[in-house]
Every structure is written in C-alpha cells, then in structure tokens.
Amino acid sequence: MYLRKILAGVAALATPMGLSIGSLATAAGGATRATGGSVLRVGYFASLAGGAAPALGTHFGWFRKAGLRVSFVPFTAAPAAAAALVGGSIDMYAGGMNGAINGLAGYARIVALDDYDNDAYLLSSPGSGITSIAGLRGKSVGYTEGTNSQIVLQLALDSAHMTLHDVNAINLEPTAIVSAFDSGKIDAASIYLPFEAAITSAIAGTHVLGRASRFLGQSAIPLVWVASDRAISSEKPEILKFLGVLAKARTYRASHLRQTAGIVDAFAKAPSIKPFLDQMTAEGWPTSRAVLSFYKDGGMQLAWQRIDKVLVQAGIAKSLLPASKVMDLSLDESVLGSFVSQ
After folding, report:
1. Which pLDDT value is given to residue 4?
2. In angstroms, how far is CA 305 from the centroid of its own chain?
3. What is the pLDDT of residues 128-173, one digit of tens each?
4. pLDDT tens-digit map of 269-302
5. If DSSP states are collapsed to H, E and C, what string results for the chain?
6. pLDDT at 41
7. Residue 7 neighbours by CB distance under 10 Å
8. Do 90 and 43 touch, CB atoms closer than 8 A?
9. What is the pTM of this model?
10. Which domains does the chain have, with CATH numbers?
11. Cα angle vertex 181, ends 175, 184, to 5°?
C-alpha cells in the first residue's frame, strides 16, 4: 500500500492533468505563451535536483521578484522532455548529461549545472535470488532508454563481461519500472531518484547491485539545465532571470536540505516526503560558488568527455562530440559572477 501511494503520487506529479507520458512531446502546450509578455516554459523533475529551483523559486517568490513568468511542465524521463524541447512545447528542462542531450546537438545546449551526481541505481528484487551483477544473466531487467538508467545498466553489464543481449532488458517508463518491480514482473531495475527511493523504502530486502558513481566516479552523471537554441536566442532575458533564481536555489538547498525536501514535496503535491528525504544523502549538492569554480576548472567539459565516451561505447550515441557542441555556460557564468560577488 505504501509503495502504491508513493508511485501514484510520483506519477501524478510527473504527468500534467489530462496528459499521458507519451503525449507530452506534443501536448505540453498547456505551457503556452500568454498575451502581453513572454512566459518561460520549463520542464522539470520532481526531485531535489531538477525540482528544487522551480519549487524554491515559487515558494520564496523569487520568480515574481525577478519579473519572470514561468510555466512548469513535469516529466519523469529526459527523452520525453527532449522531444518536447525539439517540438517547441518547452524552452528548457532539467535532465541528466546523457544520451538524450547528446541527441540534441544542433537543437539545444546545456546552459547550467544543477547537481553534481544525478545518480542511478541497479537493484534486484528480494525474491530474485540476484546478489551480483553476474547474476543478471538471463533475468528480466527494467530500464529507461536514453537516460542514466541505461548508462548504469550498460556499464554494470560491461563490468561482468555481458551486454544487453545477455539479459531480458525491458524499456519502461520509471513509474512502470516501479510497478513491475513491486509486482514481481521484473527481477531487477536500473532506475534513478526519486523512483529508486520509492522502491528501496517500501520493499525490504531490495539489493543494490551498483550505482553510477561506482562506475564513473565523482560527478558521475551531472544533472544539468538544457535550453533550446531558439530560446537562447529569443528568450535570453528570461533565461538569465531563471538562472538567477537557480543561483539562489542551489545555495539555499546546499545548507537547507531538509527544508528544501519539504518545499519540493509541497510543490509536487506528493503523498510522501520520504523519497525526497532519501535523496538528501544520495547526491552531491553544490553551492553556486562551488558551481562557478567547477566551471572554471573545466569540470563540465571533463564530465561530458567521460560520459560521451561511455555513450558511444554503449551504442547510445553514434559519435563523440566536443563539449562546445553541446554546452554554452557563458550565461550562467555571467549570472554566477554577479551572484558570488554580492
């Protein structure tokens, strides 16, 4: 019952009323531009990472004080958000530095870092008998294609000298993975927060076989903000205002994780705060000053090079791309320069 309540809440906040996940790319037009001024249409995830800036900015009135009108569209996976971005239904969104972003070269760019470690986990069910990655051979594994879920699964299999052909890999939306795991329809799952917490907090004996940081190290799969090239060109003032709110949100979150979890929980109208509380100790939460230093030290470029190599090796991306093709941090660097000097 507890798991069903969490899952129902996450699914509800991940799908705007009247829309299915599959229709988001074309129907996210609920976030339309209003007459008399620009509205920045922002896709987000209900989590402490991609959801903190929308929640905190709304709660504290930072968007209003900045003179920014924002319409939020929730998603559960980056590919759906990327499709909405390419289709023109949204202007920017939060997502992992993964295959969906790689496929956006020429349409959009990474404009800011939100969180160092947008981690994903490889889990096995208590009744599966799977206690190691090698034990996945021939078993059913749920994952979400084009996300860090797929990256972690492929890296895990590679570490055990296996490929996707050695398991029964089933591509599912995150909410469907949670349901299938709970009902015993799959033996294992590669899934990211807060969905991972919905499983581990409700199903005793769930075994953690691995996580992204085990295979990729620190800053495994950064959670970033992506804006379309069109929006960067035509909505630059609005994006700059959003980045200003993001600067405040990062720093507040870093020193007020428990309060942020409560604010995100209320913003998302989730039935339980527990997945957000579990996320507090699972990821890295930089201040905006730390983010600026990360930029100056070339951290984003190094993270991209590491992940892009994995994407190509796994067949998720066709060829390596230079960081300059997928990111432009100049706007955020400008905003952060002013923010940290205050």
Report:
1. 44
2. 19
3. 999 999 999 999 999 988 778 888 898 889 889 998 999 999 999 8
4. 887 888 788 788 777 799 999 999 999 999 999 8
5. CHHHHHHHHHHHHHCCCCCCHHHHHHHHHHCCCCCCCCCEEEEECCCCCCCHHHHHHHHCCHHHHCCCCEEEEECCCHHHHHHHHHCCCCCEEEEECCHHHHCCCCCEEEEEEEECCCCEEEEECCCCCCCCHHHHCCCEEEECCCCHHHHHHHHHHHHCCCCHHHCEEEECCHHHHHHHHHHCCCCEEEEECCHHHHHHCCCCCCEEEEEHHHHHCCCCCCEEEEEEHHHHHHCHHHHHHHHHHHHHHHHHHHHCHHHHHHHHHHHHCCCCCHHHHHHCCCCCCCCHHHHHHHHHCCHHHHHHHHHHHHHHHCCCCCCCCCHHHHECCHHHHHHHHHHHCC
6. 97
7. 21
8. yes
9. 0.78
10. 2-116+220-340 (3.40.190.10), 120-216 (3.40.190.10)
11. 140
Does the pLDDT at position 26 exceed 60?
Answer: no
Q: Residue with structure tokens 């879920």? A: 149
